[in-house]
Amino acid sequence: xxxxxxxxxxxxxxNAADPTGATVSFAFTASDDIEPDSGDYxxxxxxxxxxxxxxxxxxxxxxxxxxxxxxSGGGGTVTLAEGEYVVWVKFHDLTQSVVRNAGKLKVT
Length: 108
What we know:
CATH class: Mainly Beta
Radius of gyration: 14 Å
Order of helices and strands: EEEEEEEEE
CATH architecture: Sandwich
Strand content: over 45%
Distance between the termini: 6 Å
Oligomer: single chain
Largest sheet: 5 strands, mixed
């Protein structure tokens, strides 16, 4: 993502039950070895309805969460300096608290 960009970052979520009634949030860390603390997360949102999500090269039914991310130009829900980040997605409801590494995002 160019540092001048402001755009929604979409993350596919595969879950046994519809998670869209749960709160979803995102965190960004510099390494896979650093799991975010609870205060590192910023609220995101769900795209309504099921979607096709790629898991290990196979498309399965799932859901999509998103957050508005910006580089140095600002204006996003989260503003990131140039660098490479690990994206974490977290959602929780009455029975689950799920934290997943959702891949990497490079800001140039």
